[in-house]
Every structure is written in structure tokens, then in C-alpha cells.
Fold:
Amino acid sequence: MKSCNTFIEYHTTDSLQKHAPVFKKLTSYSAVVNAIAITPDGKKAITGSNNHTCVLWDLASRKPIKTLKGHTFWVVAVAVSPDGKLAMSASWDETCILWDLGNGKSLKTLKGHADVVNAVAFTPDGKKAVSVSNDRTCILWDLESGNPLITFKGHSGGINAMVICNYGKGILTASTNDTCILWDLGSGKHLKTLKGHTDNVYAVAVTLDGKQALSASWDQTCILWNLQSGKPIETLRHGSEVLAVSITPDGKQALTGCWDGKCILWDLGSGKILSSFKGHTDSVNAVIVTPDGKTGAIGI
Structure:
């Protein structure tokens, strides 16, 4: 990632489908922003940064609410629980921290990985979480006890990203070995390997119906996959390495973020670019679309 004094940029329109984003900056923030998650009600966002902290933001006022401190190295991933009351952060200090968003206090520190932790997500019931690491493993955690339940092994390289899919029954992981793997969450069984990229896969997203996934790679492409067959549907070609991806709730569009600082809004049905915009000069490390599909948030 490029190093810079960084803020979050908040892009809003009446609808992302109108393809004319208006740039609104959140309060200036002097740290590289690696990750963004938005609460289910769409009113708040949480970010993870290179200054070892997470910040909870109010999106209406575009101001910070509280800073969550506990990690000892970069925070590279964040997630919010389905009820919006908890958050989970993943760090290069090899841990995950479970946070109470009401008071900003840490509830548990999850230790079990042997290398940096790159991504984290809650299960739909909010009782478990999944994390992935450069140690080539994915861990399913019980949040009440803080103990690991299943360790998923199968990648031959570090795991950069993951997403829970199939209505909480599966996990899709993305790796430095240029592949994605679909797993059964309950048993830890390896279901499918998605092959098509020619370089590291940095990010992955899944449609709400669980039928399709979109992976983003250093090979300057995103691939849209049919998860039932494991076959590619469409390749979205960028002019730069792709670091981040998010799919709109209706599954019709995707927002991608690139190393060259550009964001692209895609039509997934046709594979065509709907809008391309660049309001900054540094790499886009994170993108996310709000639950109503009208707003995109970008971290640089």
C-alpha cells in the first residue's frame, strides 16, 4: 500500500446507479485507512488503520464518534455484527479483537494465528466469527468462549481475504496462490477451488443470494464466478492492480478500488463500466456499499 496522510472519502448520490458521485470528505485523518465496515442501519462506519486503531464514524456528520485502541500493529480488516452492537478487527499483530461499539471497549482478544491476520467476518447469527491469515489458515471462532472451533487448511499461500456466503453455510477465501477456495462452514470441508487469476487475489465479495462471487486481483482483473459450478462468468479488466471490491445489495453492480487511486462502478450483467472516478492520488485500499445501495465509502 502507498503511504500517505489519509482520510475517508464518502461518495453519495441519490443512487449509485445514476453514475455521478459527489465527493464528501470525512474529518481529516492522518493514517492510511486499510478497511471499512458499515453498520446495518447505514448510519455509522468503522475503519481500521495503520496507526493501530479503529475509528467509529457518524456518516451524517462525517465526524468520529470514538477511537478503539488495543492492537499493537496495523489494523487491516474490520467487520460489524448483524445486530450492529459489536465489531471485530483483524491486525498484523496476529490477533483479532472483539469490540463493544456502545462503549468502545474490547471484549475479547482472539489468538490462534501464527502470522498476520488479513480479514475477519461475523456469521449471520452473530455468535461466531471467521478470520484468515498469512499462515495459510482460516479459523472459525466461538465468540462466547473466544476459542477456535475449526481450522481450515488447503491454500498453498497466505490468505488475503474472505467472505461468508450461502446464507452462512459457506466461506470463500482468496489467496496469494492466485486462487479462491469455497469451504463448507459447518464441517471445514474443501468444496471447490476457483482458478482463473494469474496473480495474488486481494479481495472477494459475494451476492446476497449466494449464487455469484467477485474476486479482485493484482493481475488487474476482477472475475465474476458462478459459485455452483465454480466457473468464471465474466472478467472485468482494469488498468491497474485491483485491491478492493464490493457488490451492491441487488447484485447488479460492483464497486472496485485500484492501486492507481481509481474507483470503478461496473454493471455485472454486461461487464461494462458504468462510471469511473478518481478523487485522490493514492491507492484505494477499501470500498464498501451501504445497505441501501445508494452510497459508497472508500478508504485510502
User: Anything to note?
Assistant: Residues 1-14, 19-23 have pLDDT under 50 and may be disordered. The first strand starts at residue 8 and ends at 12.
